[in-house]
Amino acid sequence: MATPTVSPFSQAVVGAMRKLYPEALADSSFDNTGLLLEAPYRKGHLKNSVLLTVDLTTAVADEAVARKDSIIVTYHPIIFRGLKSITQSNTQQNTLLRLAQEGISVYSPHTAVDAAKGGLNDFLAFCVTHPDATHDLSVITPVKNAPKGFEEAGYGRIVRFQEPLTLGVIVNRITMWLQLSGISIAVPQSTQARKKSEIKISSVGICAGSGGSMLNGLDVDLLFTGEMSHHEALAATEQGRCVITTFHSNSERRFLGARMRDVLREGVKNEIQEVIEKGQWEEGLEATFKVDTSAVDKDPFDILMTDQRDW
């Protein structure tokens, strides 16, 4: 068998990702998903391992190089628009050059993960409903012409509780499941001091990342997203709604370890087995592998806790 020019393991990861989160689910009006860097293959140079991250920063690239990962799956695309040149003066382009030199490929699923059933937005819905909130769940914007088996996919979610929960209970659930020390909250200005946590919530609009445009004008009690502009949040509270934001990537990062890692591990296992059964797996290449989340990937903002007396 001729030596392949692309890592067989990286190909298995890409195949698994495309089955779990088809690129056809992504919002092609702005997104750039798929295999963004297909690095040359040097047999024995790297390990059969994949590193999951929200953002592909210099620190994450350093981590992948040190770990000798074959491929990075980065939720946010490191390439968003067409490149006219690739230079070392641009930090993101320099990262791509370095990874290509090391033979590490890069794949990004982004909004395909948001839209998929069991994906990121469903996980955020889980965060506000688990363990005991009986509720109905619906999609805000369904994906048109979704692939077979993904007919229920769509962007954003709406949770409607059969019995209202207090804002305080929902806040506790979000901070617990996303493992956050604090979040940003906006409520109508008419709310009395020390009564914010008692506000009754019967419905929640959910959108990972930046959800202002998706959630704007939605007929729900609470908007839950990663980030929202000042004016979007002000408009929501003026309409009697509450807003919870966690910072952009904090609405996404926990999903990698809590859900995607195990799902991808099973997907890659199945993909490798299929290749082996077809007799197309490279001779002498081990079928064992690892899927890990980045230890250095983090939101650029830290949450600084201050006076909570009016909550």
From TrEMBL:
GO cellular component, one term: mitochondrion
Positions with a binding annotation for a divalent metal cation: H76, D114, H248, E252
SUPFAM superfamilies for this protein: NIF3 (NGG1p interacting factor 3)-like
InterPro entries: DUF34/NIF3, DUF34/NIF3_sf
Entry keyword annotation includes ATP-binding: no
Family of this protein: Belongs to the GTP cyclohydrolase I type 2/NIF3 family.
NCBIfam families: YbgI_SA1388 (TIGR00486)
Name this protein carries in UniProt: Protein NIF3-like protein
Lineage per the UniProt record: Eukaryota, Fungi, Dikarya, Ascomycota, Pezizomycotina
